[in-house]
From TrEMBL:
<dbReference type="InterPro" id="IPR009057">
    <property type="entry name" value="Homeodomain-like_sf"/>
</dbReference>
<feature type="domain" description="HTH rpiR-type">
    <location>
        <begin position="1"/>
        <end position="77"/>
    </location>
</feature>
<dbReference type="Pfam" id="PF01418">
    <property type="entry name" value="HTH_6"/>
</dbReference>
<dbReference type="InterPro" id="IPR046348">
    <property type="entry name" value="SIS_dom_sf"/>
</dbReference>
<dbReference type="InterPro" id="IPR047640">
    <property type="entry name" value="RpiR-like"/>
</dbReference>
<dbReference type="InterPro" id="IPR036388">
    <property type="entry name" value="WH-like_DNA-bd_sf"/>
</dbReference>
<protein>
    <submittedName>
        <fullName>MurR/RpiR family transcriptional regulator</fullName>
    </submittedName>
</protein>
<dbReference type="InterPro" id="IPR000281">
    <property type="entry name" value="HTH_RpiR"/>
</dbReference>
Length: 249
C-alpha cells in the first residue's frame, strides 16, 4: 500500500479540521515539495497543530516525517497514461506546478530583486540544461539596461568565479542542485551573502543561505529532460517584478 492509499484509508478517521488538510493534500500532493508546515497550514486554512494531528493520525510523529515519505512517494510514482490523454495529463501536471509558485520564498525573491537593482557587478552561471534560464535572465536584464557577466560551462564558470569580489552578486542556476561537477571548478560552500542558488531540488546538496527552491522537482524526475521551462517562467516573473521596481523610481 502506497502513502496516498494510506491517506485515503484514514479518510473517516480525520476530524473536521484534519479533513481540510486531507482534501487539500489529495488534490495538491506536489505542494508538499516546497511548502513548510506553516505554508501548508495557511493553504489549508488550519493551524499548524491541525497539520500535526493530521500527520499523527497517519502514524507519523510530525510533519517532517510525513513530508519525507510523501516526497519519496511522489518521486517513485510512475503512472501509465493512455497516449490519447497524455497531452491533457502533462498539461495538468505543468499547471499544478505553476500554481505552486506562491510557495516560493517571497522575502528572498524580493531581496534578490533589490540586490540586482543595487549591485554594480552581476555574475550569472548556468551549465548544460541550467544554461537556458540563466541566459534568459542575462538577456532580459540586458534589455532593461543591466549589464551582466555570464558563464555556461564549468571552465568558463571557474574563470568567472575567480574574478568575483565579495560585494558582487552571483546568481547560480542548478536545476538538480548537485555539487559533484561544481566542486571541481569552484567552491560555493563558503559563498557570500550575495550568492544565490536557484534550483528545483527541495533538498539540494548545494544548499546555502540564499537558496531559492522552485516547484517541479517531481515532474522533472518523471520527464525525459530537466524542466528548464519552469525555471524560465520563474525568470520571466523575476524580470517583470524587477521592471516594476524601475517604474517606481
Amino acid at each position: 500500500m502506497n502513502l496516498m492509499e494510506t491517506i485515503h484509508l484514514h479518510k473517516n478517521d480525520f476530524s473536521k479540521t484534519e479533513r481540510k488538510v486531507y482534501d487539500y493534500i489529495v488534490q495538491n500532493p506536489t505542494a508538499i515539495e516546497t511548502a513548510t508546515i506553516t505554508k501548508i497550514a495557511e493553504l489549508c486554512q488550519v493551524s499548524t497543530s491541525g497539520i500535526l494531528r493530521f500527520c499523527q493520525v497517519l502514524g507519523y510523529k510530525g510533519y517532517k516525517d510525513f513530508r519525507f515519505d510523501m516526497l519519496h512517494y511522489l518521486h517513485q510514482e510512475h503512472v501509465e497514461v493512455n497516449s490519447e490523454n497524455l497531452f491533457d495529463e502533462l498539461t495538468s501536471k505543468y499547471l499544478s506546478v505553476i500554481r505552486q509558485f506562491n510557495n516560493i520564498d517571497q522575502n528572498k525573491l524580493n531581496q534578490l530583486i533589490k540586490q540586482i537593482k543595487n549591485t554594480k557587478n552581476i555574475y550569472i552561471i548556468g551549465v548544460h540544461y541550467s544554461s537556458l534560464p540563466a541566459k534568459h535572465l542575462v538577456l532580459g536584464l540586458q534589455d532593461l539596461g543591466i549589464n551582466t557577466y555570464f558563464a555556461y560551462d564549468y571552465m568558463q564558470a571557474s574563470h568567472l568565479y575567480n574574478t568575483i569580489h565579495e560585494d558582487d552578486l552571483l546568481i547560480y542556476f542548478s536545476i538538480e542542485g548537485n555539487q559533484n561537477n561544481v566542486s571541481r571548478f569552484f567552491d560555493l560552500t563558503n559563498a557570500s551573502k550575495n550568492t544565490y542558488i536557484i534550483t528545483l531540488n527541495p533538498k539540494p546538496k548545494l544548499l546555502i543561505e540564499n537558496t531559492l527552491i522552485l516547484p517541479g522537482y517531481t515532474l522533472s524526475k518523471q520527464s525525459i529532460v530537466d524542466l528548464q521551462s519552469i525555471v524560465v517562467i520563474f525568470v520571466e516573473l523575476l524580470l517583470n517584478m524587477f521592471h516594476n521596481t524601475l517604474k517606481e523610481d
